[in-house]
Amino acid sequence: MIINHPLLGPRDAAEFVYLGDASLIDRPDWEDPDAAEKYYEYLYLRDNPAGLHRELWFHEQGDRSWLVVTRNTLTHEITNVELARDVAKAQGRSR
Amino acid sequence: MRYSALKILKEGLTGNRGWKPVWREPEPRAEYDVVIVGAGGHGLATAHYLSKEFGVTNVAVLEKGWIGSGNVGRNTTIIRSNYMLPGNEPFYEFSLQLWEGLEQDLNYNAMVSQRGILNLYHSDPQRDAFARRGNAMRLAGADAVLLDQAGVREMCPFLDFDNARFPIKGGLWQPRGGTVRHDAVAWGYARAADSRGVDIIQNCEVTGFDIENGVCRGVETSRGRIRAKKVAVCVAGSSGRLMEKAGIRLPIESHVLQAFISEGLKPVIPGVVTFGAGHFYVNQSDKGGLVFGGDPDGYNSYAQRGGLPVVEDVCEGGMAIMPMIGRARLLRMWGGIMDMSMDGSPFIDRTPVDGLYFNGGWCYGGFKATPASGFCYAHLIAKDEPHPTAAAYRLDRFRHGAMIDEKGVGAQPNLH
Ligand SMILES: Cc1cc2nc3c(=O)[nH]c(=O)nc-3n(C[C@H](O)[C@H](O)[C@H](O)COP(=O)(O)OP(=O)(O)OC[C@H]3O[C@@H](n4cnc5c(N)ncnc54)[C@H](O)[C@@H]3O)c2cc1C
């Protein structure tokens, strides 16, 4: 697979490490009254879709940036690549 | 029809005209006591033990493709009980004992071959870890022998003992481990269940569940609606996508794992051999092909095929321990979709929906579990309480911190 890095252009997926579902960006608030239940769902439960999947890849053997890759789990086709930082900021996170 | 040597002789002399199809092709009925979703090894074994051990025969097994089209027909056929944790080891040892009596139980030749499994170690700390694992195995009634380098040399003289980076110092040997002809396991269980009246219905995909007020009353399928008192899902790699239809999110990701087979060679590899410093394992099939594999590709996938980086990694692992393998030509490679759980261990449990049961999360190790998984699932479905050896396989164990993490790597499915 080739991942079209927003800063570096097309890179071999073998340069990256895979973390999983991009919802891992949305870490729950530890002060929330149901933090225990929310962390259980955040850490352990997955949507695991057959089709489009937004997922986190880390460019370990490159510029060490985190990317959000939109990939089809049925065909492995990649349709969108964003910097995870931009995704997190667009969701209102400070960094 | 019972199989025997006499029967083969008689058929051989009369032109082999007396053989009958091994199972029926029934039309689905409107209602069953138990509907099992997925005719992989686990689904068929569940049907067999339900009908034989627990007296439940009004059962259908629904399969979206054909029997053996899933992981039961794609795995590398290794059986073993070399686990360590108390939640796992008694279960896998129970499974190995069921393998040992399987062919007599089914009257079917599944080519169960206890040729042994050898896990190589390459350093002192690894030897200590293997000694600990061996002790845990023996405490659970399994067999384990810690070999030094001379012991391994006697068994596998072809290994690269003095490899500069990963010298081979010895191994943990389980003599009762080995291989089983995987397709024959599916066929043998199917035949045995069918002979007791279980309907095995192929080309019948479950597309939804009939759930009323939190109670499951049946399934919707590509061949119409089927009512059932109990619905038991065991669809391995498809677990996430099917359970979503019942509104249940699982602690599971689906990943692809590849396997490889070389051209047929004269016997060279005595049992199963695994590399301890990278991921590579190999055995030799009875036809002579070297069957081998390694790491999963590492990303979510439902594509049943993997990529070239893993092919390279697996072959490097092979070359590191047995350079002779470099002379063999690769014949075929394929992939299967595995239900990778958050701690690398499986689930056999009820669900929040009454009458709906779940079996899954087998990762790349569910073939060896087939008999015990079927037995324990049948026990749960028939008696509504877990079998003692599978009592730790709860679906909500992460909520309580009761994970069964053999490798200790945490909630990261591609590392298990
Ligand atoms: C390459 C590879 C190598 C492996 N090597 C080993 C090994 O050496 N040792 C070991 O112990 N394990 C191994 N495994 C793991 C093992 O094969 C699996 O864990 C095990 O086979 C899973 O259980 P099963 O046989 O019931 O799955 P499957 O055979 O996959 O059965 C699930 C069935 O459900 C059906 N299904 C899915 N969705 C639906 C639906 N909606 N409706 C109806 N039916 C449906 C599928 O078509 C399939 O037939 C390996 C796996 C792979 C991929």
Automatic annotation (TrEMBL), chain A:
GO terms for biological process: tetrahydrofolate metabolic process. GO terms for molecular function: sarcosine oxidase activity. Pfam families: SoxD (PF04267). It comes from the Bacteria. This is Sarcosine oxidase subunit delta. It comes from Ferruginivarius sediminum.
From TrEMBL, chain B:
Gene3D superfamilies: D-Amino Acid Oxidase, subunit A, domain 2, FAD/NAD(P)-binding domain. It is found in: Cytoplasm. Its cofactor is FAD; FMN. InterPro entries: FAD-dep_OxRdtase (IPR006076), FAD/NAD-bd_sf (IPR036188), Rhodanese-like_dom (IPR001763), SoxB (IPR006278). It catalyses: sarcosine + (6S)-5,6,7,8-tetrahydrofolate + O2 = (6R)-5,10-methylene-5,6,7,8-tetrahydrofolate + glycine + H2O2; sarcosine + O2 + H2O = formaldehyde + glycine + H2O2. It comes from the Bacteria. Belongs to the SoxB family. This is Sarcosine oxidase subunit beta.
